[in-house]
From TrEMBL:
Its main location: membrane. It comes from the Eukaryota. It is found in: Cell membrane. GO terms for biological process: calcium ion transport; cellular response to hormone stimulus; G protein-coupled receptor signaling pathway; intracellular protein transport; protein localization to plasma membrane; receptor internalization; regulation of G protein-coupled receptor signaling pathway. This is Receptor activity-modifying protein 3. Belongs to the RAMP family. Pfam families: RAMP. Keywords: Cell membrane, Disulfide bond, Glycoprotein, Membrane, Receptor, Signal, Transmembrane, Transmembrane helix, Transport.
Amino acid sequence: METPAFWLVQLFLCLLWVNHVMTLGLGGARHQAIVCNESLMLEKLPTCGKSFEEMMKKVDSKKWCNLTEFIMYYDNFTQCTEHEANNASCFWPNPLAEHFITGIHKQFFSNCTSEEVHWEDPPDEILIPLILIPVLLTGAMITLVVWCSKRSDILV
Ligand SMILES: *[C@@H]1O[C@H](CO)[C@@H](O)[C@H](O)[C@H]1NC(C)=O
Ligand SMILES: *[C@@H]1O[C@H](CO)[C@@H](O)[C@H](O)[C@H]1NC(C)=O
Ligand SMILES: *[C@@H]1O[C@H](CO)[C@@H](O)[C@H](O)[C@H]1NC(C)=O
Ligand SMILES: *[C@@H]1O[C@H](CO)[C@@H](O)[C@H](O)[C@H]1NC(C)=O
Ligand SMILES: *[C@@H]1O[C@H](CO)[C@@H](O)[C@H](O)[C@H]1NC(C)=O
């Protein structure tokens, strides 16, 4: 049985979020009080996309749907976006950065839905958690982000 690479990517991204929010929650309250420079962040993010593109060029495009082939580059890419967002005093993840990351997903993984990746549908007891966990985590993250930003508003 093969696993849907896309959901694994989502899951991976969510785990990064959790990790990040935990870190922020424990030590970064002051950081959030600074105003996010969205234009600076949007200016910097394409650099991350560029270097991800460069790295993906080393991978045979037939293997672009194979998670094990690119997970390291993907990790590097998400770290890059996080770094740039933080450097622009932005909370990460944020809707703008997410929009950018989704664009990168479309660019590289749009063909990974069914034809190129030939997986059988895993049994429901595996598929449902794979879908639900990212969805639930995303919801939790959004709540946390909203809560944190409200809190930092009060602090300011
Ligand atoms: C945001 O970054 C831009 C550079 O892209 C800079 O020109 C601008 O002054 C910054 N804005 C703030 C509020 O720091
Ligand atoms: C994905 O890549 C890994 C490492 O190169 C390889 O072992 C694995 O068989 C590949 N999986 C598929 C489905 O091509
Ligand atoms: C991640 O990317 C940066 C810049 O593109 C590069 O310098 C660094 O070596 C990369 N790290 C890994 C683990 O690939
Ligand atoms: C981080 O932002 C500062 C300006 O706020 C800039 O001078 C610096 O080059 C940035 N660093 C990186 C790695 O982008
Ligand atoms: C996806 O498939 C279309 C049509 O076959 C092709 O033009 C496009 O370059 C492919 N995109 C990627 C990222 O492989």
